[in-house]
Amino acid sequence: MTRAPLTDSAFDAAFWLLDRALEDNEYLNPRKLHRLLYLAQAYFAVSQSGRALMPATFVADPDGPLEPTLFRAFAYSRPRVDVQPIDEAGTQLLDSIWRRFGAHSTDHLTKTVKRHPPYADAFRAGPRAVITVEAMVAFYGRPRRRPEEGIGILTDSGAPAIDQVLRPRVMRSQSGKPVNVHQWRPRSLKDKG
């Protein structure tokens, strides 16, 4: 059974990232926006057992992963679109993506993500082939064999594990002390062996 995406539209996540960049006095160019949205879709699906963040189809464009509908809508300027607020799980993920990957250059994000299997396999199938959410989850959600694999930045062979990307929520204990909490994600039977 396929679960509905968290947001009503990919515009909701795109505008959230654009507004966040403006808050930080940064210009978020279209290429970088698409790379961040792609990573957001991938890591949200990993954290939510395959559920998509947004109803979006990413394709393996020669320039890197992109969402064609957003690409056309933003071709000349920021489109006038009514966006809906995103619930806490989505904003926590988008904030984590921005904090983890937003400082990387567009070229670094593009070169690195193009070498990752979800994009590379789709591109080998043909330019503008669909990058499936399942392929994203298989790569970005795979268990790390060595502790150093994928830590810190995106590399050609790996990506940070979800617990290194998703910032923990800060809540208060019964005594009022701040504590970090993560969503519980049980390991699959495949991971245990």
Descriptive account of the structure:
By secondary structure, the chain is mainly α. It has 9 helices and 5 strands. It has one domain (10-167). The strands form 2 sheets. It has a 3-stranded antiparallel beta sheet with strand order 2-1-3. A hairpin with a 2-residue loop joins strand 1 (58-61) and strand 2 (64-66). The longest helix is centred in the first third of the chain and has 18 residues, at 30-47. Residues 170-193 are annotated as: Disordered.
| Fraction of helical residues | 40-55%
The whole-number mean of residue pLDDT values reads: 86
Count every helix, treating DSSP H or I runs of 4 or more residues as helices. 9
| Class based on secondary structure composition and strand pairing | mainly alpha
Cα-based radius of gyration, to the nearest Å: 17 Å
Inertia-based shape: globular
**Into which percentage range does the β-strand content fall?**
5-15%
Order of helices and strands: HHEEHHHHEHHEEH
Number of domains: 1
Poorly predicted tracts of residues: 147-152
As laid out across the biggest beta sheet, the strand order is 2-1-3
Question: Sheet with the most strands?
Answer: 3 strands, antiparallel
Distance between the termini: 26 Å
Q: Number of DSSP strands?
A: 5
Region (Disordered): 170-193
Protein name: Putative phage-associated protein
Organism: Roseospira visakhapatnamensis
